[in-house]
């Protein structure tokens, strides 16, 4: 019990330091969030043109209003779960030898980075409340809140697991710096697939059924698309619980992979004189 309290205090201290360090860049976060609304404006114009150019009222199972509401939620979830330069900071720690201090300290590096990740997300979310609020107010006619009160805690659960998945993907990618000097190419390639397969480009359920069946077993849809679907109440019953189970499964798998890569990476790092 004493050991647990001691570890909690350590990570709480890391969290506090992360808040202080991140708050220095609050204006950078604000500008980033403002420019992040530009793609939303472009998306609205694109889908308006698509719906105007067809005699059908729906694209897939979405009408125009539902499509706009979907992308508003995508921006919200993206702000809540997506790491901000965590992978580059971790890779820098490894490349510049700063990781050595964590080998001798009684501090788990994964816990340390996750504490910083939470602090980054908290500050970023607080800073972006105003521009997001403006966007939601501007498009308020398209907002449809869940009918069931149980949707809210399920959305919170799914979003929390989505944040864990996003962080662990970034973390495991960054750990490749133990073996590869420059990871930027790999990061950009994987993030390109992630951007497409997480539902940020368009709703994944407008894709062919065979493609959706494959995506169901990949981690990427559970970063943004699935939490949004939970909030929209488009997944219910068995499908909902199966999705949450798969999401939890990926969280555990990625946690195991991260720990395995860390252990092997540290051995490699020490073997070459790190």
Give the topology.
Elements (H helix, E strand, L loop, with lengths): L1 H22 L2 H27 L11 H18 L4 H10 L4 H5 L4 H19 L1 H10 L12 H24 L9 H14 L11 H7 L9 H7 L5 H35 L3
Helix pairs in contact: 1-6, 2-3, 3-11, 4-8, 8-11, 8-12
What features would you describe in this structure?
The chain has 274 residues and is mostly helical. It is 72% helix and 0% strand. It has helices at residues 2-23, 26-52, 64-81, 86-95, 100-104, 109-127, 129-138, 151-174, 184-197, 209-215, 225-231, 237-271. Helix 8 (151-174) runs parallel beside helix 12 (237-271). The longest helix is centred in the last third of the chain and has 35 residues, at 237-271. It is globular and about 65 Å long. The two termini are 34 Å apart. The model has no long low-confidence stretch (mean pLDDT 84).
Rg calc: 20 Å
Sheet bearing the most strands, described? none
First-last Cα distance? 34 Å
> What's the number of domains?
1
Helical fraction: over 70%
What is this structure, in a nutshell?
This protein has one domain (2-271). It is 72% helix and 0% strand.
Provide the descriptors you would attach to this structure in a database record.
single chain; 274 residues; mainly alpha; 72% helix
């Amino acid at each position: 019990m004493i050991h647990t309290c001691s570890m909690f205090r350590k990570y709480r201290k890391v969290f506090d330091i992360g808040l202080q360090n991140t708050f220095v860049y609050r204006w950078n976060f604000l500008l980033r969030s403002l420019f992040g609304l530009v793609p939303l404006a472009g998306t609205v114009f694109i889908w308006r043109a698509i719906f105007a150019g067809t005699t059908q009222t729906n694209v897939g199972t979405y009408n125009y209003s539902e499509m706009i509401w979907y992308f508003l939620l995508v921006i919200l979830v993206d702000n809540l779960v997506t790491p901000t330069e965590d992978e580059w900071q971790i890779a820098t720690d490894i490349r510049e030898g700063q990781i050595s201090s964590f080998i001798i300290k009684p501090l788990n590096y994964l816990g340390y980075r996750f504490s910083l990740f939470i602090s980054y997300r908290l500050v970023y979310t607080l800073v972006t409340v105003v521009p997001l609020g403006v966007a939601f107010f501007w498009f308020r006619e398209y907002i449809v809140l869940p009918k069931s009160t149980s949707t809210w805690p399920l959305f919170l659960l799914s979003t929390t697991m989505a944040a864990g998945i996003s962080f662990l993907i970034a973390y495991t990618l960054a750990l490749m710096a133990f073996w590869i000097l420059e990871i930027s190419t790999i990061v950009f390639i994987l993030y390109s697939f992630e951007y497409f397969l997480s539902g940020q480009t368009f709703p994944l359920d407008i894709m062919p059924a065979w493609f959706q069946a494959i995506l169901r077993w990949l981690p990427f849809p559970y970063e943004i698309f699935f939490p949004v679907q939970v909030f929209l109440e488009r997944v219910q019953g068995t499908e909902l619980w199966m999705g949450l189970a798969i999401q939890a499964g990926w969280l555990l798998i990625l946690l195991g992979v991260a720990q395995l890569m860390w252990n092997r990476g540290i051995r490699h790092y020490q073997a070459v004189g790190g």
